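User: structure tokens for 6-carboxy-5,6,7,8-tetrahydropterin synthase, please.
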Amino acid sequence: MRVTVSRKAHFNAAHRLYRKDWSDEKNNSVFGKCNNPNFHGHNYELVASVTGSINPDTGYVIDIKDLADIILEEVEKPFDHKNLNLDVPEFFELNPTAENIAVVIWNKIRKRLGADMDLEIVLYETPRNFVSYKGE
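Assistant: Done. Predicted tokens:
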């Protein structure tokens, strides 16, 4: 029997969508207002869902406190109130789109989970725009 346990989290961050190898005109055409050279920000909402077997000793798939601590250490502390392009090493060369942010978060949390657990990340950039990633 496999059960999914989910934890919500929140962080605020600024970013700019652009490619250094493209002209200003092409960046503006593709990314529009998200290419603002002075950056822009979002109030991101994150849902991290871990699926696994229930441990017969504890009754847990994962201790929710442990999942909360992982999210705090791997996502909230490094991303909250940061400029993703300038302050977060994973995005120094990677365009911080919602899609790429979700994959980076998945990789950071995944390394902290047991091999027998599955992970899904749902990242809301706005209340109406969100992405999900379950791994490759």
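User: Anything notable?

Assistant: The chain is about 30% helix and 30% strand.
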